[in-house]
Amino acid sequence: MSSKARPFLIVLVVLVVLIAAAVVVLWPYFESQAPQITLNPAPSHLGRENSLELQVSDQGLGLASVKVALIQQGREKVILQQDFPASRLQSQGQAEFKQKITLEPLKIGLTQGQATLLVEARDRSFNRFLHGNQASLELNLTIDTVPPRLGVLSRNIYLNRGGSALAVYQVSQDSKDHGVMVGSQVFRGHNPWPDKPDYAACYFAYADDLEKDAPIKAWARDQAGNQAQAGLNVHLRWKQYRTDKINLSDNLIQALAPRFMAMAPPEVQGEVAVFMWVNTKLRDLNHEKIAAVCLSSQPRELWQETFIRPLGKPMSGFGDRRIYFYKGEEVSRAVHRGVDLADVANSPINAVAAGKVIFAEMLGIYGNCVILDHGMGVHSLYGHLSTLEVKPGEDVKRNQKLGASGATGLALGDHLHFSVLVGGVFVNPTEWWDPHWIADNLELRYKEAGVKRPQ
Ligand SMILES: [Zn+2]
């Protein structure tokens, strides 16, 4: 090797070492993991005002910028532009960006019709000549700020505290959901007439524990979230419920509490405590379960004839307020949300109307329990049975046997606990087996709206 070449070689080696070092140092800055964009909800329609949760994250070097824009007919309106200034060589930038976004299409000059929602995010990678990895989310959506049309067809509606009613109304076909609101309680309506798709009916109830004068109105909401409301001409009849004072004896507690020992949480110790837990907490849990089960309902009426009144002597009524005392002290309160009917032990318990079995199993205070769906949000419940002779999914005819009466659950003697629910709310069952009530409050509603009873 000549003496001239040696310095050149040294320079070359140094260069190679420098380049290698640069590659090692800079290599992580060329990561190619693009940011991730999540929109919740990812809308298909936009109404007057829409709230979305935007979340953008980057696994690599962190975020450089996030942009949100609405585009209509080639015009772009930027909703949000967020840059994350950080030195290029800082090893870790912002990994996550969360922001609530409000989209008000009319306010920023957009019009009804199609538009695109665009979310773009770039990270701090050196890729693409320092432009970073880019992720984008494009949603084609419809801007619709016109509320659905809603017209009430029912005239006067009479409703008892704790009772049921039916409203018939017309609603434009862009409605996604509709129904009746009683205070803050929402009841869902259905469109059961194929030849009149804009006609709708909704069963609703005035819960026995609702305050007086809760506002009652029909409502409809379209896919963009636009809401329409219309007043209903409801005449509410207030009713006082009876109050019973019940003295809990040690005998009664000893007879009932052992059935529930295994269900109570470990901190609830002793028969008295278990009984109190059953009568308050378990009762609430059972009612939550029943409300969840009753979300399942056919969008048409499965029954036509007036409900059959189950056989037996009435032992207690709907809405009875019960105050429980133990050794002279008030220990708990409960409302009886059904009627108790006692006949001979092991009497056949039959379906009060045609329907579909949606529940048939053990349910806490109700013991062996059957719930039937009669369609359009109306359900009947049979509790304390000794045997269950139907299974969920089965269609049952009016008067078909469901099981035999018993004393399972929170019951001392053999009797049937019978409840009716409307939209998951317990109602007074006696209305449903009164042919005059059916004629004046259900059949007349259909008649005055010019429609047949839905089948
Ligand atoms: Zn009962």
Q: Helical segment tally?
A: 5
Low-pLDDT stretches? none
CATH fold call of the largest domain: Glucose Permease (Domain IIA)
> What is the strand tally?
31
Mean of all residue-level pLDDT scores: 93
User: Mind telling me the CATH superfamily name of the largest domain?
Assistant: Glucose Permease (Domain IIA)
Distance between the termini: 103 Å
Percent helix: 10-25%
User: Biggest β-sheet, characterized?
Assistant: 8 strands, antiparallel
Task: Give a quick set of tags describing it.
alpha+beta; Immunoglobulin-like; 8-stranded antiparallel sheet; binds zinc ion; 3 domains; Glucose Permease (Domain IIA); single chain; 455 residues
Please provide a written account of the structure.
The chain has three domains: 28-143, Immunoglobulin-like, CATH 2.60.40; 150-237, Sandwich (Immunoglobulin-like); 243-434, Glucose Permease (Domain IIA) (Distorted Sandwich), CATH 2.70.70. Strands 19, 22, 24, 25, 26, 28, 30 and 31 form an eight-stranded antiparallel β-sheet that branches. A five-stranded mixed β-sheet has the order 2-8-7-4-5, with no helix packed on it. It has a four-stranded antiparallel β-sheet with strand order 13-12-15-16, with no helix packed on it. 15% of the residues lie in helices and 41% in strands. It is built from five helices and 31 strands. It binds zinc ion (ZN). Zinc ion binds at residues 336, 338, 340, 417.
Topology (elements, then pairings):
Elements: H1 5-26, E1 36-40, E2 45-46, E3 50-57, E4 63-72, E5 75-83, E6 96-103, E7 113-123, H2 127-130, E8 134-143, E9 150-152, E10 156-160, E11 164-171, E12 175-182, E13 185-188, E14 199-205, E15 216-222, E16 227-231, E17 233-237, E18 243-248, H3 250-256, H4 271-293, E19 313-316, E20 321-326, E21 329-335, E22 339-342, E23 348-350, E24 355-362, E25 368-373, E26 378-385, E27 387-388, E28 395-396, E29 401-404, E30 416-422, E31 425-427, H5 435-448
Bound molecules: zinc ion.
Residues 336, 338, 340, 417 line the site of zinc ion.
